[in-house]
């Protein structure tokens, strides 16, 4: 009994919720102490919640099951944690299943004991509320926590490209970890002997939450299933298009494919056999580019900066002006770009490192001066975007979305599923044209899996939510549709009558207004150029619209620089070597 009591005291002394003094509460009330064998289930989703559990030793994984029937671990419960209390206090069914990653020693608490502890200790009650609030804010995305474990599988350990990249990032990782805005240290570990050694290190990383552990391994066999469930993020580091030896592994998590290219590589390329479904997305890096080194480090710490470009038809030229201003201010260290509708078109050029001046020239020539769309011969739309698709295919000949220097997310709406669809790999023109296909005006687009896609703006015209789920870094959003309380703005031109095209566009914006406004609130920096007086389909004033975007950013330059300096996330000069 003395040994068990000592274990309880040690566990609670390291807890964020309990104190060492709470150990006497459990010991004096003879709370049941039990052992769960590794791999066994403590509770299952849907069961009655009649007790909570305090973990004394070991690691318990919480699993959820999605609508497709697949399960995933979204949280690891360790020594000193309380689990199952919410359902027990609220008389709710279990919302997840608890499975032991290791042998687990735990204490059982019924509802009466939890309520007694709350009533007897206001400080405990406050800490419990804080713990529940933190869990609610993180949701069920294990990547929401910036600390934990990262594994870098260096597929080509003897490659000069991957070896040089790993050498370059070490001093940058050190600077990020000492940034005042960053609350976690890190430890980079190269010397890993075998699968068992990695397993022990990963278990330790689950317990030590204040440190981000980065493990560099050379052999795919080290990533056994028992090790994969303990990994928060997996990077597969490879030399360009080199063959991947791990493709036949049964992966439980989708890795980030990180391709390292020589300095003279103009654009990355992908083989026809590229298996996009294996990866969450693809990160392309030039081996000696300091900005790419900093980008990789921000991804490792989950602090990548994301630029989100909303839809708006001709108003999309304001995106180009805003990007030009960011370039001039030196605030262009974005790591990903998300876009919808016309914002998707600007997104793809920005992702391939095309500067604002060239983006403007390309769009001026192909969208304004040439005929971007033609009359449709079908019954599903008035116009066709075949002309635009041809010009995109011509510019990006032989390239795919995964070949961009900045990872992209392009939003469309899939009519078959009535849900948002994010494109990050595959055909560039299919993704962009799908995202721009306003229903009834432009014909829907088929994908390779027979999905039927239209403009993503009908569901949300500012794609911020996914960005916030993917990063703890800075999310900058540029919104182009007028605010509902801005009476000086009008989506209807004063000089023209309301016609069919305008009616369709305005109706679609009304349908997505609520979701779009919610996404506005999620952005860390929201930029809204004053373009409300320009009709969505008026291409004659594209230069004025461009200027609005440029001047909006420049007029707030002090604010942006102040914000960035405070957060320390753009990576120049602090994060760059």
Overview of the structural elements:
The protein contains 18 helices and 25 strands. Strand 17 (374-375) and strand 18 form a beta hairpin. Strands 15, 16, 19, 20, 22, 23, 24 and 25 form an eight-stranded mixed β-sheet that branches. The protein has 577 residues and is of the alpha/beta class. 36% of the residues lie in helices and 21% in strands.
Overview in brief:
The chain contains 18 helices and 25 strands. The chain is α/β, with parallel strands linked by helices and 577 residues long. The longest helix has 23 residues.
Topology at a glance:
Elements: H1 2-13, H2 22-28, E1 33-36, E2 41-43, E3 51-57, E4 60-65, E5 71-77, E6 82-83, H3 85-90, E7 97-100, E8 104-110, H4 111-120, H5 122-138, E9 148-154, H6 160-177, E10 185-189, H7 195-207, E11 211-217, H8 225-228, E12 233-239, E13 256-261, E14 281-286, H9 290-300, E15 306-309, H10 317-329, E16 336-340, H11 342-351, H12 356-369, E17 374-375, E18 381-384, H13 386-395, E19 408-414, E20 419-423, H14 428-436, E21 440-442, E22 445-446, E23 452-455, H15 465-470, E24 475-478, H16 500-522, E25 525-527, H17 542-555, H18 557-567
Helix pairs in contact: 1-2, 4-5, 6-9, 10-12, 10-17, 11-14, 13-14
